Amino acid sequence: MPKRKKLTHSTTQLAGPHSVSTLRKKNLIPSPERVNGKRGGAPENPDVSSKPSGLTNLELKRYQRQMLLEGWDVKGQEMLKKSCVFIAGAGGLGSPVAIYLAAAGVGRLRICDYDTLEVSNLNRQILHTHTRIGKYKALSAKITLKKINPHVDVEAFFEKIDEKSVSKLVGDATLIVDCMDNFPTRYILNDFAVRKGLVLVHGSIWGLEGRLTTIRFPQTPCFACIFPDSPPSGVFPVAGVTPGVIGCLQATEVIKYLVGIGENLYNKLLVYNGKNMSFQQLKVRPDPECPVCSKLR
């Protein structure tokens, strides 16, 4: 058989947004310099680290790959660091949401769940381990998140979200992530978000299917416009990968909104079907007779 030619491409020969030259132009890796007449001796810190910012050198290094994204940059990372997000639920959806928001460098996470961990949760609730059975999920979540990113401030709350407690629990968060598994609590979060003008990122799952939308009243319909009726309560089937998919997409919506890049799912409902690996976007509109938001438009 003829010998195959050996490919000898170097990273400096690659073109595109991830080429070495592009990284150097963005000051996210140092340019080689001559020291004592020899090539090498790059400065200890890239130029970006010396620019005034609210980020430490360690944080600049930690987040440099995501700061390469167009429109993100140091300013976008600073926006994440200054942000506070309320995550309602530390279960199947709340796990990937919290993990990726912490990994991305969102400055403060307020995570609430009044349930304790059960062994049947472990097929999907990846914030937790079998060694924490019986512990409050919110506290277990805090332990995990601080290990993932010690730069993030995590506040854990283990009390039920209701009309009386929602304001205290959401606190000064500018965005709510709905990771709940019951509609009564979802309606409470929606009512509060509409009244306070907060963005609400909704995600829900069933079996191998999931739904996602971003609500920003009055620009979009509220949750009650889209889902006017609550489904029957009860234990429903769920494959662990499904909340993983939808939770990651929820985290993506949060990050895009906070950084100010891309387009959010306004006035759209994303429907995911894991059985045939399909995604659909359905248009949604405000309900002129919605009991929550119609009189406030």
Brief rundown of the structure:
The protein is α/β, with parallel strands linked by helices. Helices cover 32% and strands 18% of the residues. The chain contains eleven helices and ten strands.
Question: What does the secondary structure layout of this molecule look like, with pairings?
Answer:
Blueprint: H1 20-25, E1 33-35, E2 38-40, H2 47-50, H3 57-62, H4 64-67, H5 73-82, E3 84-88, H6 94-104, E4 108-112, H7 137-148, E5 153-157, H8 166-170, E6 175-178, H9 183-196, E7 199-206, E8 209-215, H10 223-226, H11 241-259, E9 268-273, E10 278-283
Helix pairs in contact: 6-7, 6-11
Description:
- It is a single chain.
- The chain is of the alpha/beta class and 297 residues long.
- The chain contains eleven helices and ten strands.
- The protein folds into two domains: 21-28 and 49-72, no CATH class; 83-296, Rossmann fold.
- The protein has an eight-stranded mixed β-sheet with strand order 5-4-3-6-7-8-9-10, sandwiched between helices. A two-stranded antiparallel ribbon has the order 1-2.
- Strand 4, helix 7 and strand 5 (153-157) form a beta-alpha-beta unit.
- Helix 6 (94-104) runs parallel beside helix 7 and helix 6 packs parallel to helix 11 (241-259).
Notable features of this structure?
297 residues; alpha/beta; Rossmann fold; 2 domains; eight-stranded mixed sheet; two-stranded antiparallel sheet; 11 helices; 18% strand
What portion of residues is helical?
A: 25-40%
Count of discrete structural domains:
2
Give the SSE string. Answer: HEEHHHHEHEHEHEHEEHHEE
Strand order in space, largest sheet: 5-4-3-6-7-8-9-10
- Radius of gyration from CA coordinates: 22 Å
**Can you identify the CATH superfamily of the largest domain?**
NAD(P)-binding Rossmann-like Domain
Mean pLDDT score = 87
Strand tally is: 10
Low-confidence stretches: 4-15, 17-24, 28-50
Largest sheet: number of strands, sense, barrel closure:
8 strands, mixed
**Which CATH class of the largest domain applies here?**
Alpha Beta
Distance from first to last alpha carbon? 74 Å
